[in-house]
Amino acid sequence: MAERYELKQKEVWDGNMAASHALRQAQVDVVAAYPITPSTPIVQNYAQFLADGYVDGEFVMVESEHSAMSACVGAAAAGGRVATATSSQGYALMVEVLYQASGMRLPIVMTVVNRALASPLNIHGDHGDLYLGRDAGWIHLIANNPQEAYDMTLCAFKIAEDERVRLPVTTNQDGFLVSHTAQVVEPLQDEVAYKFIGDYKPMNPMLDTKNPVTYGAQTEEEWHFEFKASQHKALMESPVVIDEVFEAFEKLTGRKYNRVETYKLDDAEIALVIMGSAYETAMVAVDKAREEGIKVGLLMPRTFRPFPYNEIAEKLKNVKAIAALDRNAPMGAMGALYNEVSGALAANGQSAIMTNYIYGLGGRDITAEHILEVIKETEKNAKAGKRVTDLQGFINLRGPKLSFN
Amino acid sequence: MLQIRWHSRAGQGAVTGAKALADVMARTGKYVQAYSVYGAEKRGAPMTAYDKIDDKPILDHSKWMTPDYVLVIDPSLVFQEEIVDNTTDDTIFIVTSHMDKDDLLSIAKHLQGKKVYVIDAIKISQEEIGRAIPNTPMLGAFIKVSGIIPFEDFLTSIEDILSKFPRKIIDGNLRAIKRAYEEVK
Amino acid sequence: MATPKEMMTTWDKIQPGAVLPSFEDPEKKIRSKFNSYNYKVADWRVEKPVFNRDLCIDCDFCWVSCPDSCFIVEEVVNKRGKKQAKIVGINYNLCKGCAVCVDVCPTPIKSLLMFPEFVDNDEALKQWPTKDNK
Ligand code: SF4
Ligand code: SF4
What we know:
The complex is a heterotrimer of chains A (405), B (185) and C (134).
Chain A: E1 11-13, H1 15-25, E2 30-33, H2 40-51, E3 58-61, H3 65-78, E4 82-86, H4 88-103, E5 109-114, H5 128-132, E6 139-142, H6 146-161, E7 169-174, E8 182-185, H7 190-197, E9 213-214, H8 220-253, E10 260-263, E11 270-273, H9 277-291, E12 296-301, E13 303-305, H10 309-315, E14 321-326, H11 336-347, E15 353-358, H12 368-384, E16 392-394, E17 403-404
Parallel strand pairs in A: 2-3, 2-4, 4-5, 5-7, 6-7, 11-12, 11-14, 14-15, 15-16
Antiparallel strand pairs in A: 1-8, 6-13, 10-12, 16-17
Helix pairs in contact in A: 1-2, 1-6, 3-4, 6-8, 9-12, 10-11
Chain B: E1 2-9, H1 14-26, E2 31-37, E3 46-54, E4 69-72, E5 92-96, H2 101-107, E6 115-119, H3 121-128, H4 135-146, H5 151-161, H6 167-183
Parallel strand pairs in B: 1-4, 4-5, 5-6
Antiparallel strand pairs in B: 1-3, 2-3
Helix pairs in contact in B: 1-4, 1-5, 3-4, 3-6, 4-6
Chain C: E1 20-21, E2 23-25, E3 30-31, E4 47-51, H1 61-65, E5 71-77, E6 83-90, H2 100-104, E7 112-116, H3 121-126
C-alpha cells in the first residue's frame, strides 16, 4: 500500500507540483511519460513520490512522447487508470495517438503545461499546443492557477472515467505563469481526494483474457462515420457529467467551478473572452475599468472542449461589444475563441460586435494595463454601435502597429 | 501588495529563495506568488525571480512589477544597471558585496541616491554552508531590513522548509541566516 | 468484402470505441458477429496446402505464421503425460492459399505442400515426395 503523504492545510505549490500531487492521490496504475519543459517537474515529482513509496502504480519512462501516449493507450485498454503529462513539441508528437485514445474511448488523463510550438524554439507559455489538440476528441479543462491545476486534475479523472463519458481529458495550465509560479494551494487529504475520484472501473479490459476484445478495429466507410458520430455525441453530452462532478467538488471543497466562468458580467455592456492565467490578470483590469465607469465583464470557457456555445451565447446576450483574446498564433484566420464565440452568437441570433486580439505568444507578458487598453477599444465599438476598431489586433507586439480587417 | 525582485545567476538559488520566502509568508496567512523569468540558458546566466505577497488572493499573472525590494544575490550583477529598472525612490536594495556601501556606490553609480543595504552573502554562505549559495543569507538580511515578520517565527518556518535536507546543511543555512541578519548594513 | 447487411448497425447501437468482443458467449465459445472467423476467403484460392500428419513434428510454426489462423489444433497428452497441442488439419474455409505455412515448415521433407485446388487430398498424399526424390 502506498504511504500517506503528510499535507498541510495550505501548501505553497507551483502548478506542476499541484498536478503531481493530484496524480499521486488518484493512485494511477500506469504513468508513461517523456519529460519536456515546462511539464518536466510533473513527472519528475511523480517519480520521486514513487521512489519514496507514495505511489503503488507503475511509472514507465519511454523514448518519446509518441511512445508515451501509445503506452498510455495500451495500459488503459488493458484496464488500468492511466495518466501522463506533456507540453508543446511533445504534445505535437503525441497528436496521432491522442486521436487513437479518444477513438477507443480510453479515459486517460493528461496534465498539459501549455507552451508555444516551434519554430522558432521557445519554452514559454502560450496556447499553441492546446489549440493543436482541439479536435482530437479529448475534453479540455482550463486551470488558471496552481489551485485550479490541482482541482481540475482531480475532477479530470472523475469526468473521464464516468461510464457515460469514457473519454480522455486534458487539464491545461499556462507554462511558467502557472506551472512554475508558486502560490497557496489548499489540497485535500489523500483519502478524501481518492474517495472523491473513486476506484477505477475497467470497461472491456484486454487483460480479461476469458473475454477477448479487439481495440483499434478497422472500420472503413461503412462504419467509420457511425463510430465518429457516437464518439462526438459522448463528448457533446459530457457536460451533464462535468456539471455533476463540479457540483460534487464544490460540496467537498467549497470551490465552485463552472463550464463557463464569468466575472462581473451581469450588468456588463462589453465583455472580454479570455482563457488561462490571463483571465485572472484581466480581473484586475476589469476592476480598474469599472473604477473609470466602464461596465465590462469577463467570460472564460472552463471547458475548451466540449465548447459550451449555447451557455456562452446566453451569458453574452446583453453585451454590445465583445473582444476575444487568443493566446495562439492564428495563422491565416481569426483566433479560435473569436471564431467559436462568433459562431455561438450567430447560432442564437445575437449580433454583438466582435473583435479579436492576439497576445502573449511565447510567454510575452500581458499586464492589466494592456488589457485595460483592449477594454477601452472595445468600449468604442459599443458606443459607436458598429465596429470602429481593427478586427484583429496584437497586444504588446514590438514595431509598427499590426492589424487585420 | 509587497513586491520583491531577485537578481541572480541561474544556479545561485534565487528561485528556491523566492519560493522559500513565499512559503514562509503563506504560513502567516498571506497570499503569495513566487516565480522566475529565465530562458533556456546555461548556469550562470543572469536571471530574475519574483515574490508577490498580499492579504488577498493574487490574480495578476503578469511578470511586470514595480518592486518594493530588490535583492541582488550575485556580486557582479550589482554593477548592471538593469537592477534599478522599474524601481521607485522608495525601493529598497539589498545587495551582495564584499565592499562597504560607500566604496560600492562610488562604482555602482546607478545605486546612488537609492536606499541601499549591503551584505556579503557570498562569503557568509561559503563559510557557514560551505558553498557559494547566497540565497538563504539574503533572506536573513531581508527579514532584518524589512521587519516583515519576527525573526524567531521566520527561523521556525525556514527550518521546517529546509527539513528535507541533511542536518548539517540545515544547521549551516540557519547559521548563515543568523549571521546575515546581524551583519547587513 | 462488403459488410453483410444484417451487420450494418446504426450509430446509436454501435460498440463504444469500436471495442469489439471476440465471443458472444465466451463460456460456450460462441463467436461474435465481429469475429473474422466468420469471413470466408477461400473462394479465390487456386492452390491449397495439404497437411501430412505422418511427417509433422508439431513445432507449431505453421500455426503461428498462418495469417488466417487456419490450423486446427487438438489437445493431446504426450508420452510424458504433459498436455500438448497437436496439429490435425487445415480449415479450408479460411485458407487463402498463400503458402506461408509451407515456407516455414521445417521438416526435412515438408509436412505441408501446395497442390492444385482440384487435386483430392488423399491423392496429394500419395504423390508426396520421399527421401530419394524430395
Ligand atoms: S496457405 Fe496461407 S492461409 Fe492457407 S493455411 Fe497456409 S499459411 Fe494459412
Ligand atoms: S510447420 Fe510443419 S512440422 Fe511444424 S507443426 Fe506445421 S506442419 Fe507440423
